[in-house]
Structures are given as structure tokens and as C-alpha cells.
Amino acid sequence: MNQNSLLPVSSNADSEGGVTLRQTIGAVVRHWRLIIIVSIVAVVAASVIVFFSTRVYEATALVTVSQPRYALRLEGVNQINTVSGPQRSYTDLARSDEVALAVMNKIKDSLPPEINTLDKFRGQLRVTTSTDATLVTLTVTDKEPARAAQIANAWAESFIASVRGLYGIDAVNLASYQKQLEQSYNALTAAEQSLSDFQAKNRVVIVQAELNTQQSRFTDLLNRQVQINLLSQSAEDVRKRLELLDPKSPSVVTNDLAVLQLSIQSFVSQQAQPPVQLQMPVGQALSGKTAAEQILVVDSILGVLRSRAEAWKKEAATLEPLILDLQGKLAEAQIQESRLRRARDLAEGQYTRLNNKVREADVAAQDANNLAQLASSASVPTRVAGWNRILIVLIAAAAGAALAVIGSLAWEWWQGNLESKESR
User: Are 86 and 111 in contact (CB under 8 A)?
Assistant: First the structure.
């Protein structure tokens, strides 16, 4: 019986033109030995490759990272209050030179000779983060399973330390702030003691009282000079008018002279300690005198007024350097007091700010331990990383069979066994 007679008869649609399904299946069946042989060769080749290929193991450590609840603010120091792009930040930080170098230093005795550069070592590291960047997965590939787990755990420790140091406040910084606080307290105590010592011998109030007294006396002398100059001018006006009269005839300016006398008495009575006493006739005593006699009275008044004006002028001149000296002493004492107060206020403000920052740093240092924590340490892997070996062999068998089928069909076509009836 012909082998083709065993195949089912194709439908009319298949026999109308082109390569029929029966022809295709027949071509495959005729070369079944070749297909089986190629598949076996592919399986053997894949098995050999898989068997002799380098086995790589993967170890994974998990680290949880949270946002810092407290942020320490220092003047003139750049700070991190929020994390911009946390996924990228943690990924870059985990693969940074500092972290990778720290891991290499920890396990350098266990590394193989071929891993002698930082780039080669970093090629074994892979890091991924969750969507909210709270879970960081650190994966290490290595030929030795125990070494892969060792590297992964060392990597997790270094990464956690780096996160705490970057986003938190470590104990070294806190100790530094506490030392600065102690220095600030000593500076404040010294400033307060300096101000207290100055106040114990401060003469600002005494000098101010002396200055006020001398200034009041100086002002009073100036006012007296002005008033006595006005009285002298009035007396000179009266004398000029008396000179115009007949010296032997009775004066007609008696009233003006009496007014001048009353003005002088009023001026003297207004002084707390009258520096001059004028004894002059008043009222009717001046009415019978001649112009010459009244001129003598006016000259006597002018002499007294001028004498007192000159004495007050000299006294005011002696007060001027004394006032200037007191003003200098007062200004010097006030400047020294102001300087000491500013130093005390500055030291107090600095101490208060540092005290608040030490409290914040203390809380932040305690919270820093919770920023990054080891969620799961890496255990020694027992399975080789990569595809399943059986799956690889099956894929190789399927690929070999497919290749053999395609080759068989191509050979049949080349021999003309797959040509349609019309083309024949």
C-alpha cells in the first residue's frame, strides 16, 4: 500500500490549487526521523550548555525607609527637609560610590580576584524600590551562594547607615551641638558678669545729674545775660533822652526812669539767689531831680548791669569745658554700657537658639534610628538564578523540531513534491 493512501482525502477546496494540507503533512511524515534526530541534538546541546554554564545565585535583602519626622534647621547650612524623587534618590544612594566602597571594604577578603574594581563590583548589585519608596530591595548576584548573601547583608547595613547619616542627626553631630551649647553658656555667663561688674561702679546716673546741674546753670547764665543786656539797652535809651534835656532843669523822663528801676527790681526778684542788690530812690524821690542828677543815677545802674553781665559771661565760659568733659564721660559710660548689654543680649540669643536646636537634634537623633531599618536579611540561596533548566531543555527541543520541520518542507519544495497539480 502506498504511504500516501494512508492520508485522508483532502476536500475539494484543498485540491483546487496550491499546496494541500495532505501534501504538507505527508512531507513532515516522510522526514520524521530527521525531525526526531534534530530535536534530540538540540536537547543534547542545550543540556551540555546548561550543565557547563556558570551558575549564578541571587541573594536579596529588604530595607524599609520612612520620611524623617523632624528636620534640623541651621543658619548658613544646607538642609534636607523633604526628599525629592525618593525612588531615584534611594536608588542612587544605594549604588553610590561611598556605599559600594563601604561594602567592598567589609567583604574584601571574600571577593574573588577578578572583582578588583568598583565598577566590576557594582555590576553585581541591583536595587529596586516600591512605588512609595518605603521598601528598597537590594539584590546581589554571585557565583557563590554564601558570598551573595554576605554581600547583600553588608550592602543593607551600609545603605541603612548612609540613610541615617544623610537624613538624620547622628550622635557625633549631636555631641558637637552640645559642645557649642556649653561654650555659648560660658560666653553668656561671662557677658552677664561683665555687665554686673560695670553696673557696680557705673557713674552714668551721677554724671548725668552733674551734667544736668551744670547745663541748667549754664542756661540760666545765658538767660540772665540776655535779660541784663535788654535792661542795659533800656537804660542807655533813657540816658540818651536825658542828655537831650537841660542839665539844670527838672527831668521830664522821671516816669521812664522809674519804670527802668522797677524792671531791674523785677529781674532781681525773679532770681533764686539775687546776685546784685540795687538801692535806688523810687516814686517821688526821683521827681524833683534835675536831668544831670538822673543821668548820674542811670550811669550807676549801667555800671552795675555791665559788671554783672561780665561776671556771668566769665562764669558761663568756665562752665563750658566742664559741661563738655561731663558729656564725654557720660557718652563713654553709656557706650560701654550699651556695648556690654549688646554682648549680653547676643550671647543670650545665641544660647537660646542653640538650646532649642540641641533639643531638636536630640529628638531627631532618636528618630534617625527609625528612618531606615532592615526588613529582611538575605539568606543563602539554594537555587540557581535565571531560567529553569528543564524549561530551557524543552524550549531547545521545540526549537530543534521546528527547525527540522521547516528544513523538511524546504527540501520537499526544492524537490518539487509540494507543487500544485495545475503547475504540473
Answer: no
Q: How confident is the model at residue 418 (pLDDT cuts 50, 70, 90)?
A: low
Amino acid symbol at 78: N
Of the candidates 377, 367, 384, 325, the one whose C-alpha atom is nearest the C-alpha of residue 67 is: 367
Which string of b and e fits 149-173 if b means at least 16 CB within 10 Å?
Answer: bbbbbbbbbbbbebbbbbbbbbeeb
- pTM for this structure? 0.42
Is the model's pLDDT at 84 over the cut of 50? Answer: no
For residue 417, what pLDDT is reported? 65
Burial class (CB in 10 A: 0-12, 13-18, 19+), 368: buried
Q: What is the pLDDT of residue 404?
A: 75
Element (H, E) at 229: helix 204-243
Single-letter residue type at 382: T
Residue 358 CA: distances (Å) to CA of 72, 164, 176, 269, 370: 9, 18, 10, 72, 19
Q: Are 298 and 242 in contact (CB under 8 A)?
A: yes
Question: How far apart are alpha carbons 258 and 274 in whole angstroms?
Answer: 20
Q: Which residue has the higher pLDDT, 246 or 358?
A: 358
